[in-house]
Amino acid sequence: MEERRINVVVNGEPKSVDVEPRLLLVHFLREVLGLTGTHIGCDTTNCGVCTVLFDGLPVKSCTMFAVMADGHEVTTVEGLGLPSELHPIQEGFREEHGLQCGFCTPGMMMASKALLDENPNPTEEDIRWALAGNLCRCTGYQNIVKSVLWAAEKLRSEAAMSR
Amino acid sequence: MYPSRFHYEAPRTLDEALDLLQAYGDEAKVLAGGQSLIPLIKLRFAAPAAIIDINNISGLDYHEEDSDGSLYVGALCRHRTLERSPLLRSKHPTMSATAPLISDPMVRSRGTLVGSLCHADPQGDWASVMLALGGEIIARSTGGERVIPVSQFVVGPFQNALQPGEIAVRARVPAPRGTRSGTYLKLERRVGDFATVGLAVALETSGGTINRAGLALTGVGPSNIQCTAAEQALAGKTLNASTIDQAARLAAEAAQPKTDVRGSAEFKRHVVYTFVTRALSNPQARAA
Amino acid sequence: MAQALDEIKIGGLGSSRKRVEDDRFLRGKGNYIDDFKLPGMVHMEILRSPLAHARITSIDTSKAWQIPGVHMVLTGDMAAQHNLAWMPTLSYDTQAVLATDKVRFQGQEIACVVADDPYIAKDGCEAIVVEYEPLPPIVNPYQAVAEGAPIIRDDKEGQTDNICYRWEVGDREGTERAFAQADLVSKLELHYPRSHPSPIECCGSIADYNSATAKLTVYMTTQAPHIIRAAVAIVAELPEHMIRIISPDIGGGFGNKVPVYPGYVCSILCSILLTRPVKWIEDKTGNLISTHYARDIYYKGELALRKDGKILAVRFHCDSDNGAFFSDAQPTKFKLGLIHSAFAAYDIPFGYMTAQGTYTNKAPGGVAYRCSFRVTEAMFFQERAIQAAAYDLGMDQAAFRRLNLVKSHQFPFRTPYGFLLDSGQYEKCLDVALNAIDYDDFLREKEEARAQGRRLGIGISTMTEPLGAGNSREYDILGIKMFDAAELRVHPSGKAILKIGSKTQGQGHETTFAQIVTHELGIPAADILVQHGDTDNTPFGMGTYASRSTPVAGAATAMVARKVRAKARKLAAHLLEVSEEDVEWELGRFHVRGAPNNGVSIQECAMAAYGNMPDGMEPGLENNAYYDPPNMTWPFAAYIVTVEVDPETGVWDVLRMVAVDDCGVRINPMIVEGQIMGGMTEAYAMANMQFITYDAEGNCVGSNYMDYLLPTAWETPGFELHEVVTPSPHHPIGAKGVGECAAVGGPAAFVNAVMDAIDDTGVRNIDMPLIPDRVWEALKYRRDISGAPPVKSDAD
């Protein structure tokens, strides 16, 4: 069985692991590294629950092979906040009831992170557009939009404080 | 969603990739963005013996104009880059309108324009855009490069004109004669869906006179359809109610839609007519 | 004097306290089925039938067995040796676990492979060779009863046709008499297309049979762990006390995770055979094509009307497509669920309903998809028929509704189909909604727009729903009455653990059930841990579906807290050295009557229960309660949607969406609103894009998320929510169910709005989904559009 050594920085930590080429990135994260916060929801690259940041950009980790991450950086929900302190996006989802079953939430928050990294002051429409690849069956999205707006405001005020 | 086994190659140079492709022959698939190929492999609809991942080859992720105004899009230029491109926004309105309508934000982070063209999905949006713009693909093999007009590149559903051993390294959009205008209208059941009907319009005008008109359709035929008759009818004319109506009728006639879950053939043909009318009446129009 | 407790501050009734569950979900630390890894665990994948109807002539598994890493290849014949090739359904039918004789729908389970990892298991499935002899497929109820139709269930002795039940409810003769007196009869035919609950997380299980202790532990995605334990005991013939069902965090259920599926049973059998943990995680296609669907009913109905708008009677018939096995998860007595709750919101003297269920070569089911057993189907037909009748009468649709809605003074109100509505303020809800949407202004705007060639429309849906199944006289599943239980332990320091038999899939039980206890005992919600989803450690409950958690398990929770409070009162009397009669309760505290400063807190009582109880009192402060609801709770809602239709493309955009829900007392308003918005989104989805259909060969269209469309944040409209509160008179805290109302009542509001936008065309109906081409076609040809959209292979 063919295996390849890959060197990936996951949530800031370098990892060096042998993997089969056919192993999907999402399975690498979940099964090899035990980072089960990244979920799997569909087989056809539609649902977005597996969204992670790949070199800072949002990607569907079910639609990359782990070998393609060799030499790259991946951030998952486990790398979003600190164990002791939630990231403002996480706080926003809690404050605005942006989650119910929680299954889409990690992917939804990672896509939101990508948006806010690029656009710290998004409109409701910007948020809805940026999350168009992440399906949620529980919330109806309205509270998710509010959650991201909440986070954006907090991040902006944090940035203003540190200036 | 558990792919079959395959050999994996990650060449660092284009020459290395071409050698590998030669060695594996048609057993191998070239992997760029992977947003069409990997889903097929996950579902085991495709099971290539080898994958040649070109993502580690530097110098393919670009889009730029040369001195004569031609636009080049490299094989690793992602939809996301095109979506945000100031160059496209200022000078390539049809492309600029299309990029945000490709699938969803995560897919656009990875997927590439050249890869989409190679995948040749009859419902792909970029092929219509390239047909409307008179675009070309530059293919390279160990023997050198050749230029293939997109009209000849997509030869059928999921079939392209690449020869064994060739890699599509970039797409080219020729410089416009006059000012470029245009848009891409897409009727989709939901954002990110394949087009029920897609229309690419690309006009090159001087003082109101159309030097060149490009019209192409997505989702209403076995492949993307170039509306040659409509294009010819517009060439040399100015846009008015009568020329717009004529072009819309000719485009609707060029469509070869089929009835399916997205809609009836008659409906799709009517939407082609409506879209052409709307796009020509307001070339800045965006789909709902 | 001690400060009175602020109930909202301590997280009691009416507090929008933040959710307890979120702490783990936000960190990616949820425990969903696929997140579990047990020592020695192996992985199972299922091979499914590509054909809808075919005889299996051979299955060759030899190549699969040869693949390194494969531990087991299980076929129906092997399962039959353990008497597990078939299993009973929740509707007293049988269902194949692994096909032995025929396949009866596309996606049916043929075999499964267990291997070191799921990739190898999938390799194994691919290596199995199955030969079929194709049979003609049946894909709708009319084909099923056509002359010469092949018998799908030839496995059932005595089955000579494809009918699985006939059922009637109501007063046939009275209804006929009323129709004879009608000035006008308004008729409507329509199809509610097949849909799928489609939680984002698919089904899965990890079966762990311990050969040393003979105990079977099954981790599984189930909304009803206790019922599943009973079912597994019956199916696998294992002793019930040696089965432990653990339902971990669930990534959405919506009814899809109530039934017993072949995958669960196979993982259990494989674990018993291999004596190691076997994990099965379903893929999306497997979920969409084989697990329980919903809807798929054809209706024909009519209303008898008086000229002045009064409805005299209603009658309708339903042809239900039940798929290959009659496996609805629903109360035994009701063959098409609570479909006869249709028209319950209106004061109609007479009603009669008939239904016929048929077998077809489609996935089995008829699950209560975000509804109380076919109530969605009932209310959709009701609200479509009401709008059509208003048009037929030439009456304003809001006025027609107001005239016929049950009035506040009429409660409790008996419907012609035998339900008893508990309470409501129906007209008030409608008025709040009409006011919120600026009804009269919109009608003017619509008229002005129409003059300019623009098409605006307004759709209303006023609905009620029987929630909280149910009283033990009428409701049972597999002979088990549909009550629920709660167990409450207050520890010496006054912190508490509540154990319930229901199971959250996102509704937030861990948050809201604590609030009920807080309301009853004054213990801060933060001091109460809610446990659920583990049959070894929670009392019996029928599970969470059909919006029954708050009405039944919530009531049990209030009742057990009251039992605990009764004991605490004795302890307080002891501590205060007065007689029990002289002790008064205020939230969180007892005091001596007439001496409010002389009191003890519930926490002090708790400590006394363990350290200072009166002589002869049993120590401890805990109890349990089983709650058998006297009636259903009946929430009411008025939903109004406005749309604009583009006549050239048939595309319709939602302009506004107003929801007025009366679900009685709201335990946690934030969570209630979340439920309503989620339900409304599913309503929008069904009206707009979400459906499953089959081509003539029985191929499922809608087998993945490219074809089965769920709305994203982009399309989903914004929602404007309002409330009216009519407490349920029989529920201990006045609450009613709410999780499903919007999904139940919402679809008709969207469809009615689009129909209203083309109300000058004479078109009576466009069946869902209202995709652009159907709206365009109806407009262009001024004709009704019926049935599911055509599938390509049919049209070619």
Q: What descriptive keywords fit this protein?
A:
heterotrimer, B: 288 residues, Uridine Diphospho-n-acetylenolpyruvylglucosamine Reductase, domain 2, Enolase-like, domain 1, 3 domains, 5-stranded antiparallel β-sheet, 4-stranded antiparallel β-sheet, 14 strands, C: 796 residues, Aldehyde Oxidoreductase, domain 4, Aldehyde Oxidoreductase, domain 3, 7-stranded mixed β-sheet, 34 strands, globular
Could you please describe the fold and organization of this structure?
The complex is a heterotrimer of chains A (163), B (288) and C (796). Helix content of chain A is 36%, strand content 15%. With 163 residues, chain A is an alpha+beta fold. Chain A folds into two domains: 4-79, Beta-grasp domain (Ubiquitin-like (UB roll), Roll); 88-162, DNA polymerase, domain 1, CATH 1.10.150. Chain B has three domains: 7-53, Uridine Diphospho-n-acetylenolpyruvylglucosamine Reductase, domain 2; 63-173, Uridine Diphospho-n-acetylenolpyruvylglucosamine Reductase, domain 3 (2-Layer Sandwich), CATH 3.30.465; 179-281, Enolase-like, domain 1. In chain B, the strands form four sheets. A five-stranded antiparallel β-sheet of chain B has the order 4-5-10-6-7. In chain B, strand 8 (154-156) and strand 9 form a beta hairpin. In chain B, helix 10 runs antiparallel to helix 11 (241-254) and helix 11 (241-254) runs antiparallel to helix 12. The mean pLDDT of chain B is 96. With 796 residues, chain C is α+β, with helices and mostly antiparallel strands. The chains are: A alpha+beta (163), B alpha+beta (288), C alpha+beta (796). Chains A and C meet through helix 2, helix 3, helix 4 and helix 5 of A and helix 1 and helix 17 of C.
